[in-house]
Design goal:
Strand content: 15-25%
CATH class of one domain: Alpha Beta
CATH architecture of one domain: Roll
CATH superfamily of one domain: Dipeptide-binding Protein, Domain 3
Strand order of the largest sheet: 14-15-16-3-17-24-18-23-21-22
Distance between the termini: 23 Å
Structural class: alpha+beta
Helix content: 10-25%
Largest sheet: 10 strands, mixed
Length: 642
């Protein structure tokens, strides 16, 4: 700011003029001393503060801990990257670029293997190469060209090699250099058996090593062709600060779980349990030269009640309401507040999809279908499944329960995903068509009363006169109550009755064989499933994913759906990359799924956030799990004016 200093009178000369007749007097002029001006103090710029409100307290700030949504939001301020997800793609943050096969910093090279070598077989399992193991030789990307190992020969298989180059000059918030050794250290922590999390990628990593202080190479085990290869970089952890603790202690010690060092825009300064987390600007942030972050301090406030969080936004306590505040039930209010210029509402679909599973093959069928003791085979004919799909008014659910802010999917991929197949069979709400299909299957309206359930007449493996009344298992959440009520009404238009069974989430998702969902003991069951990977998840519905006694009731194919053609198409995509011809089988797998409709995609869940009016830099990306990935650019005030 400019300083304004008043001008001072430079000096004063006093002279006496005497009458001519008076004696001459010599007068010494008096010169006034010029005062030394007192410098005005330069005003200290006001501290700029940002308040982000969370719906829950973080479980931990240890990156490899059991992180809840609030924890991931706070970590977005402490760390930046290593890569962000933007529009179904990856954006390098502390790396020079995302590696790619096209640019040559990712490669698939042949490697010689022998009996006893650890390899990934044609089904994607990690095995020791031995007689009878089925593998894909070099250049092979499907089971069509897989071979059975003879137990003695040398064999060439493919191995992926990916090179990551970090930016120069990165520093931890304490000023220590951040180098590739910190990522190697992180890989070691992730590999430790006491560290929580999946070991899938760790187990399929042959070597993870530093070429120099900026360059790291990842080598996959032979046969492991990873479509997500460009993400196989372990986020650096501060070896200089944490190496004195063994991996199991990092879960509890304050230096890693409460006040972790980072390289991002802010530094965790204080955690007042149950109330707030205070962070300050990181002066060693690698983008500090660009004036980032915009605020001097950042405070995360905790508001477990959504209504209280909205009130805090309106009264100015909160600048941002993070999606963890669970604002789904406040959308109508926030829309009105936006009209009144008291808030800005943000919504986006998530990568979590709500499903209605159909019990095609209950667990009781695993030893063979027995018409005398097993549940009637309601869903064995795919036409019945198709009829149920067109008799569900899913669009009404989206329009009313979700305020029209989501979409009705037609497969396991959202319509804006780059690999979505737009030419597959779809099922818009059409009770007339649904009734016609049910008649063709043999479900008849015997009493000509559309308000009563249809009855079986010529339905395969269903006793004559069995009413079409289905048990619908769901949780007692408010939103699911609303969904079930809409579906009960729309299915009734097709002569399908519902017996809705509500339970708490723990019972609904309980492990099999007792749990209705994973124990495969349902007619219809509503559930949600999502994943952080951007790769299509056709594997959710492969036969290998059916929960059963043989796999300890673990799997995502709760419907018990089996189709060898679908399995084959999906399997061809699981170990291919975008440059392989087999990558196009993603389209075929979606088409088979849509025709068979083993489970009905209902809607994509929403994430909802809000900011004060005149706030800028905040966005919600459907493909990203972090709402605060760009927190360093958040701002309000004059900089946000158009």
């Amino acid at each position: 700011m400019k300083n304004f200093i008043k001008a001072l009178l430079p000096f004063l000369i006093l002279a006496l003029t005497l009458p001519a007749c008076a004696p001459e007097v010599t007068v010494t002029p008096f010169v006034a001393r010029t005062p030394t001006p007192t410098p005005l103090a330069t005003p200290t710029p006001a501290i700029r503060s940002l308040n982000v409100c969370l719906g829950e307290e973080p479980t931990t700030l240890y990156p490899y801990g059991n992180l809840n949504s609030a924890a991931r939001s706070v970590l977005s301020a402490i760390y930046d990257g290593p890569m962000d997800v933007v529009d179904y793609g990856y954006e390098a943050i502390i790396l020079e670029k995302a590696p790619s096969l096209e640019d040559g910093d990712a490669q698939v090279t042949p490697i010689t293997v022998n009996a006893g070598s650890e390899v990934v077989d044609s089904s994607g399992n990690l095995v020791l190469l031995d007689t009878g193991v089925k593998v894909r030789p070099s250049g092979c990307r499907s089971d069509d060209c897989a071979i059975t190992y003879d137990g003695s020969s040398s064999l060439q298989m493919d191995q992926m090699v990916v090179t990551f180059t970090m930016l120069e000059g990165l520093m931890w918030s304490d000023g220590a250099p951040l180098t590739t050794s910190d990522s190697i250290y992180s890989f070691g922590i992730a590999s430790n058996e006491t560290t929580p999390g999946s070991k899938f990628l760790v187990d399929r990593t042959a070597t993870y090593e530093a070429a120099d202080e900026q360059t790291i190479q990842w080598w996959g085990k032979p046969g492991f062709i990873d479509p997500d290869y460009y993400t196989n970089f372990w986020m650096p952890l501060p070896e200089h600060a944490w190496s004195e603790f063994p991996p199991d202690q990092l879960l509890q010690v304050d230096v890693s779980s409460q006040l972790p060092l980072g390289w991002g825009p802010y530094i965790i300064d204080e955690w007042e349990a149950g109330q707030r987390l205070h962070l300050i600007k990181n002066l060693n942030y690698f983008r500090a030269g660009s004036g980032l972050p915009k605020f001097d301090e950042l405070t995360f406030l905790i508001f477990p009640e959504a209504e209280a969080a909205v009130s805090a936004l309106v009264d100015g306590t909160c600048d941002v309401l993070d999606p963890s505040t669970r604002l789904d039930g406040q959308v109508g209010l926030l829309q009105q507040l936006q009209l009144d210029n008291q808030a800005d509402l943000f919504t986006a679909q998530t990568m979590v999809m709500e499903w209605l599973g159909m019990g095609i093959a209950p667990a009781s069928y695993d030893d063979g279908f027995d018409a005398k003791k097993d549940r009637p085979d309601y869903f064995g004919d795919k036409r019945t499944r198709q009829a149920i799909a067109v008799c569900l008014d899913r669009q009404k659910v989206v329009d009313t329960v979700l305020f029209g802010l989501s979409q009705v999917p037609d497969s396991y991929l959202p319509s804006d995903h780059p690999l979505h197949n737009a030419n597959i069979q779809t099922y818009e709400f059409n009770p007339v068509s649904g009734n016609q299909i049910l008649e063709q299957v043999g479900w008849l309206d015997q009493d000509n009363d559309p308000s009563t359930p249809r009855q079986a007449f010529t339905v395969t493996n269903v006793p004559v006169n069995t009413p079409l009344v289905l048990n619908y298992f769901t949780t007692s959440a408010t939103q699911r109550h609303q969904v079930a009520e809409i579906f009960a009404q729309s299915l009734a238009e097709c002569g399908i009755g519902l017996n809705v069974i509500y339970s708490n989430a723990a019972d609904h998702y309980a492990q099999g064989p007792a749990g209705p969902l994973f124990g495969r003991q349902f007619d219809l069951a509503e559930y949600a499933i999502g994943v952080n990977s951007l790769e299509p998840q056709c594997s959710w519905f492969t036969s290998a994913q059916i929960p059963s006694e043989s796999n300890h009731w673990v799997g995502t194919n709760m419907s018990g759906y089996e189709n060898s053609n679908f399995d084959a198409a999906c399997q061809k995509t699981l170990q291919t990359v975008s440059t392989d011809p087999e990558y196009t089988f993603h389209q075929e797998a979606q088409a088979i799924f849509a025709a068979d409709i083993p489970a009905i995609p209902l809607y994509l869940r929403l994430k909802v956030a809000a900011t004060r009016p005149g706030f800028c830099g905040f966005t919600l990306d459907p493909s990203s799990s972090s709402a605060l990935a760009d927190i360093e650019t958040f701002d309000y005030g004059a900089a946000c004016e158009p």
